[in-house]
Amino acid sequence: MVKIFVGGLSPVVTAEELRKLFEQYGQVNECDILKNFAFVHMEKEDEAHQAISTLHKSEFYGTHLTVEYATSKIRNATKIYVGNVSAKATTAQIRQLFERFGKVVECDIVKNFAFVHMAKEREAMDAILHLNDTPLEDQKIFAD
């Protein structure tokens, strides 16, 4: 799966509209809008590359988009590996589980596992301790 950063979004754009734009190039697994930017997760590398090269600097709802591969700029966060993630699970569900213990800076699912970045190490350790063997969809996750 490929994570794409989309910047310069018009405030009127919905996640569904943005998803439809990217689905012209291939399978979109997730599409999350945060203020005036978004992250789009596409299944295949070649489809993501095509979307990025075609949509970068294109006009969408009156603004010019910045479309590029997402790079993690997380500093001083604790990264947690979450294993045995069901194909039915979403990043929103995982984020919600971990946010009970503290601030989640980033959360990404990659195939059948995920990475959760938490702001404070103590909160991350608490989450790991309490979330091992937690049911999520049709499987029990483990955190390390």
Automatic annotation (TrEMBL):
<dbReference type="GO" id="GO:0098534">
    <property type="term" value="P:centriole assembly"/>
</dbReference>
<keyword id="KW-0539">Nucleus</keyword>
<dbReference type="GO" id="GO:0010467">
    <property type="term" value="P:gene expression"/>
</dbReference>
<feature type="domain" description="RRM">
    <location>
        <begin position="2"/>
        <end position="72"/>
    </location>
</feature>
<protein>
    <recommendedName>
        <fullName>RNA-binding protein 14</fullName>
    </recommendedName>
</protein>
<dbReference type="InterPro" id="IPR050502">
    <property type="entry name" value="Euk_RNA-bind_prot"/>
</dbReference>
<dbReference type="InterPro" id="IPR012677">
    <property type="entry name" value="Nucleotide-bd_a/b_plait_sf"/>
</dbReference>
<dbReference type="InterPro" id="IPR035979">
    <property type="entry name" value="RBD_domain_sf"/>
</dbReference>
<feature type="domain" description="RRM">
    <location>
        <begin position="78"/>
        <end position="144"/>
    </location>
</feature>
<dbReference type="Pfam" id="PF00076">
    <property type="entry name" value="RRM_1"/>
</dbReference>
<keyword id="KW-0963">Cytoplasm</keyword>
<keyword id="KW-0694">RNA-binding</keyword>
<keyword id="KW-0597">Phosphoprotein</keyword>
<dbReference type="GO" id="GO:0005737">
    <property type="term" value="C:cytoplasm"/>
</dbReference>
<keyword id="KW-0677">Repeat</keyword>
<dbReference type="GO" id="GO:0005634">
    <property type="term" value="C:nucleus"/>
</dbReference>
<dbReference type="InterPro" id="IPR000504">
    <property type="entry name" value="RRM_dom"/>
</dbReference>
<dbReference type="GO" id="GO:0003729">
    <property type="term" value="F:mRNA binding"/>
</dbReference>
